Write the structure tokens for this entry.
Amino acid sequence: MTRWDSDIEGEMAMRDEVGGAFPREGVRPAAEIWADLTAKGRALTNTRIVDLFGRDADRFMAFSAAQQDMLLDYSKEKIDRDVKGLLIELAHSAGLDQWRERMFAGEIVNGTERRAARHNLLRERRPSLAGVADMREQFLEFAEDVRSGKRLGVSGKRFTDIVNIGIGGSFLGPKLAVDAMAPFADGPRIHFVSNVDPWQFHRTVDELDPARTLFICASKSFTTQETMLNTRAALDWAATRLGPKAVEQHFCAITAKPEVARQHGFAPENIFQIWDWAGGRFSIWSSMGVCVAIRAGRRNFEAFLGGGAEIDQHFREAPLEHNLPVLLALIGIWRRNVMKQPAYVLSPYEDRLAAFPDYIQQLEMESNGKSVNRDGEAMELDTAPVVFGGAGTNTQHSFFQKLHQGTDVAPVDFIVGAETPTAALHAQAVLLANCLAQSKALMTGLSEQEARERLQAKGMDEAAVEKLAPHMACPGDRPSTTLMYKSLDPRTLGRLIALYEHKIFAQSVIWGIECFDQWGVELGKRLTEDLLRSVDEPEAWEKEDASTGGLLAWRKSLMNG
Ligand code: F6P
């Protein structure tokens, strides 16, 4: 057993109970608050967001909050001061303050797997568990050695290319961080292989020099089918070209199962541990980020961790009404449960955050895509919305049309920086103007009368005006929230990720659901294993449903045809 194992097990033994409800003196039961919120929602139906600005001269101040330079403006949501008060009361009534402390204290908050969720430990400046500090030191030193050339391949050449093999949280976080830290990065190039589709592996390695390539096999469980198959392909590829010694010098592993990695031939000093208490989708702060550290260096990786730690402190200490993750959570609850909006859009106006929506999609939908409460009872409230998005301005030319004129409403989280690391100041101003114009257009819309007047001013004849105006009109009154910060540096990236992590946890508390498990994913994994056994055996297809059996038979005929 390693030093970090024993530290953590000792600590866990002290905290082995999942708590139930908290006594909350002076707070109304949730059902009463929900009833008031529903009534408020109904009352606001015919009030337009723009008119809420007219009614409240301090609206921007009252509906925005900041953490350092990072401002959350939610004044373009359809809420008023009463709604805000009720939502905060709801958070208190759900025991958010207590659940938050329970998570930070390392108590079990993942009830079905009987685990703590301690990803915050991974970003502490001086980790309170010695094992975490030791492991951080170990993987950062490894990263620096790869960067400096102290660590070389079997033929004595420096590594120029790193291939990170992993999927889900073992891919999305590293990919996001590598993209976002691009201006701060001067280390070897990073490539990602996540999909089991062999095309991705071959397309990636075909361009690489084996003697200068290092593979990172990133899998918390070290059993994930896609990652294990790609790891096997990489081991074969490297051994064929570099000989049997390749595995010791060209491969490292990141896993909570170091003994399994050892069985695959990985050298013990090249195995970096993560722990059960860090969920896959919360693991970017751990050795899972080693490719980020190789690319951007220790200092930038530490700044990233520091940003996450800042938000931990803010989440723990800021009063709920000024607490950014809590406010984001409450806005989401209002949208989902009162306004009945089933999806929302994440729209970073920052090309380096193009992967942010994918990252948050896993974080939010895998965490809160649940339909029973902590006691296993069917949920009456809707839980995680569908999350989708992409980098602006690209999205304006793909799906934003529907946001402006479609029949249903998908609110938007806009994310934008004030500065760019390039000298292209005008282009940055254009980007910002686009972002603000979108949120404004969604809110104000364009009435049919305004459309008519515009067309008339252009001299169009009346018949044509009447025909075109209804198509031009945009209903408006579509909500959005904007998050603005100074510049996207490693610290701000850390803040952004931790912000959404805590938002998602806060929502799970209000809904009363398990946030840190993902049992739904397991069923698909098991059925894949079953199907794999019968893919080429026609007699087994009889047992399948008619669709699955029919598709297997069709495939066979295509292959034979
Ligand atoms: O999608 C299910 C899941 O378990 C995720 O939670 C995780 O990020 C991903 O698979 C990869 O898991 P592992 O790191 O164990 O290979």
Q: What stands out?
A: The CA atoms of residues 416 and 484 lie 5 Å apart. The chain has 23 helices and eleven strands. Confidence is low (pLDDT under 50) at residues 1-21. The longest strand covers residues 343-349.
